[in-house]
């Protein structure tokens, strides 16, 4: 077998990576280049003659550097991005090195088993039923697609329709009930699945974005046919959590399937201090969450859980003569997620969980929530929400969006914007394991200074 030069490019990659990571505390958080500058640095015609691999890596790192957002930084507070722990990053490097196709057990036995193990740890951590099936996907978007495909199968099966064979043409119409302040990935999943956004019935939420049980009950009273109810743990703007126990009571009494969007909020179940926010979560039918948010593993890493394994497999499973399908107690991942060939995402999740342990995960959740509260205390009357988790929502009046731009340009921290109840707002999410009190205090000082300048 031919032996390529692995040492040169991998050594260069290691040196570039450690230089980037160790430089994060002093690096401006935002990007320092525009698209034209990056096209000039990275573009040009494909050369006829190849270039030495180590030189390619060095040039790539140099050319891309100005356009790299320091999202692994402890002062990146945009969206809900957690960075990566050292163990998770190292396991991700091994994942790329091993290059396992994790769709089939036969193509990657260790990849399959590590997903079983890590999936079991997560079931236990979140307090989900022991029989719950697990799938490793790219993120919350595909987790919703997977879970709602299982829900589509089951609610139509109960109505006497085989959607996998017959499709949706002629099928009983599915109604999807969700909070008016749901995440847009729910709507997008319904588009992907052919259910359509016209099937959505939005129900009223309170001033923090939590679904109102009475509004849900009223909505369900007016619906005939198969129903899926989508609840939310962790409103993307406020962090608020729907009253899951009450929602399950009402929805299940009408025969509906309950899906929980817990992209980051489901992790509250791992904390004794915050678990009350998700009381009753174990009674839902399916759940979505991300590991690349609060668990701090590299992108991309989403998780789907289903309390009805048969429905999960019916929606996702596939058979083909040329494949080596699992038998006995083996598990093929492609029976639990939409992808055929895919990366072995279980290794970084396993490494993160094994390194942190149950107590470490709880400490990570609690500490980032405490830091969000600390930031809110600095910001005083600018805070719009009840800070129940790691999200702080701020307003500075008409100048809010301009202020967000100036904060990013200043470089100390990175924040994102939104529109909340018709007005511009700044979102501040504390999700990174390296964030400490000094990062919070520096960010608060910069934002307040720029807001008054």
From TrEMBL:
Keyword Lipoprotein listed: no
Keyword list, A-Z: Decarboxylase, Lyase, Pyridoxal phosphate
Name used for this protein in its record: Pyridoxal-dependent decarboxylase
Cofactor needs: pyridoxal 5'-phosphate
Region (Disordered): 25-47
Source organism superkingdom: Bacteria
Sequence similarity: Belongs to the group II decarboxylase family.
Lineage: Bacteria, Bacillati, Actinomycetota, Actinomycetes, Micromonosporales
Organism of derivation: Dactylosporangium maewongense
Residue runs in coiled coils: none
């Amino acid at each position: 077998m031919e032996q390529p030069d692995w040492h040169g490019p991998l050594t260069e990659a290691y040196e570039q990576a450690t230089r980037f990571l160790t430089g994060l505390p002093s690096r401006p958080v935002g990007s320092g280049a525009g698209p034209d500058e990056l096209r000039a640095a990275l573009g040009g015609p494909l050369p006829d003659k190849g270039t030495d691999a180590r030189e390619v890596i060095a040039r790539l790192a140099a050319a891309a550097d100005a356009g790299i957002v320091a999202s692994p930084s402890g002062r990146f507070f945009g969206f809900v991005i957690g960075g990566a722990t050292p163990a998770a990053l190292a396991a991700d490097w091994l994942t790329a090195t091993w290059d396992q196709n994790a769709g089939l057990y036969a193509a990657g036995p260790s990849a399959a088993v590590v997903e079983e193990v890590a999936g079991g740890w997560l079931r236990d951590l979140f307090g989900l039923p022991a029989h719950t099936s697990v799938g490793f996907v790219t993120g919350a978007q595909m987790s919703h697609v997977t879970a709602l495909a299982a829900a589509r199968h089951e609610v139509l099966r109960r109505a006497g329709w085989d959607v996998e064979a017959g499709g949706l043409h002629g099928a009983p119409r599915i109604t999807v009930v969700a909070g008016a302040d749901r995440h847009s990935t729910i709507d997008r999943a319904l588009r992907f699945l052919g259910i359509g956004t016209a099937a959505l019935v939005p129900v009223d939420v309170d001033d923090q974005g939590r679904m109102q049980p009475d509004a849900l009950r009223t909505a369900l009273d007016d619906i005939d046919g198969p129903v899926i109810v989508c609840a939310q743990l962790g409103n993307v703007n406020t962090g608020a959590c729907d009253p899951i126990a009450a929602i399950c009571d009402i929805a299940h009494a009408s025969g509906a399937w309950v899906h929980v969007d817990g992209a980051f909020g489901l992790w509250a179940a791992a904390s004794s201090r915050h678990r009350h926010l998700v009381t009753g979560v174990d009674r839902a039918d399916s759940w979505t969450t991300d590991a690349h948010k609060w668990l701090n593993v590299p992108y991309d890493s989403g998780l789907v859980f289903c309390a009805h394994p048969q429905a999960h497999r019916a929606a996702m499973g596939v058979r083909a003569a040329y494949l080596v399908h699992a038998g006995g107690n083996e598990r093929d991942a492609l029976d639990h997620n939409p992808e055929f060939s895919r990366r072995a995402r279980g290794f970084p999740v396993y490494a993160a969980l094994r390194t942190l342990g149950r107590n470490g995960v709880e400490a990570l959740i609690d500490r980032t929530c405490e830091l969000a509260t600390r930031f809110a205390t600095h910001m005083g009357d600018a805070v719009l929400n009840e800070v129940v988790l790691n999200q702080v929502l701020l307003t500075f009046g008409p100048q809010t969006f301009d202020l967000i731009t100036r904060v990013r340009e200043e470089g100390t921290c990175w924040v994102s914007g939104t529109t909340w109840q018709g007005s511009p707002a700044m979102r501040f999410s504390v999700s990174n394991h390296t964030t400490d009190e000094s990062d919070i205090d520096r960010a608060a000082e910069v934002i307040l200074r720029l807001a008054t300048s």
